[in-house]
TrEMBL record:
Protein's UniProt name: Uncharacterized protein
């Protein structure tokens, strides 16, 4: 059995914060002793994503090496995150997810992102 800490929850929460209008947010995946830090920057409808590899998860961003970056629309990013987690749930099932990775499937965070994304796509008229 492997453990994935709270990285999936952090990732989904970071994307949800962007959808909700936050301009900068982060998530971190621990790879002990190294870490991968996702930095999300939003300007208008665009999102810039930078992934840094750090030798220690407590290191400052400046101590990391950028291993990937991309630009996506906020809608594309949210849709991709939701689809990926839906696929994991469908492929493995939530019970097997816990058995395989030692943590509960991040259903609460996924559904929070889904609600925000739907509201973002279809804002109600005043």
């Amino acid at each position: 059995m492997s453990s994935i800490t709270s990285a999936p929850e952090e990732f989904l929460t970071a994307v949800a914060r962007l959808v909700a209008g936050k301009t900068e947010t982060r998530a971190q995946f621990e790879a002990e002793p190294a870490a991968y830090r996702w930095i999300f920057l939003r300007e208008g409808e665009d999102t810039w994503i930078h992934v840094l590899e750090l030798s220690d998860g407590n290191d400052h961003d400046a101590g990391g090496t950028q291993v990937w970056s991309s630009q996506l629309g906020i809608n594309q990013l949210a849709r991709a995150a939701i689809r990926c987690f839906d696929e994991v749930a469908q492929t493995h099932g939530e019970g097997d997810y816990r058995g395989k990775w030692g943590e509960h499937f991040p259903r609460t965070e996924l559904e929070a992102l889904r609600r925000l994304w739907r509201a973002y796509q279809h804002p109600q008229d005043p």
